[in-house]
Amino acid sequence: MSLWTVHPKYLDKQGLISLWREGLLAQKVLNGELDVKLSNPIWQQFRQAENPLKAIGSYLSFVAAEGARRGYKFSHEKIIYPNFEDYEIPVRPQDLIFEMKHLRDKLKLRDREKWNETSQVEKVEAHPTFRLN
């Protein structure tokens, strides 16, 4: 499962659509609809949140908002608890930097325009559901 801690604005179309789908899958697992064992560290952060479904709902709401900004039609009604609350799931700065480098490597191969755009970023922003610690 690929849930990104970087802000969704950095993702290309393929990445944003994949993130939406992965987030919906995570929501199903958290809601007990799927019995899947996931070991991704970000996934574990959601499981440990005070209210995991609201936390993933916030995550998905921000992803859907980025999609809407770009003109995509993500089905907001698929979010069990849509909200824009700040859950402040902790993420280390070095993890955010590593993840941005990983994303830029992907963008270099599949979306040169987005790759060029992200190369201008001096300070990487986290997804609004996360906070740097």
From TrEMBL:
The lineage of its organism: Bacteria, Pseudomonadati, Pseudomonadota, Alphaproteobacteria, Rhodospirillales. Pfam families: Pyr_excise (PF03013). This is Uncharacterized protein.
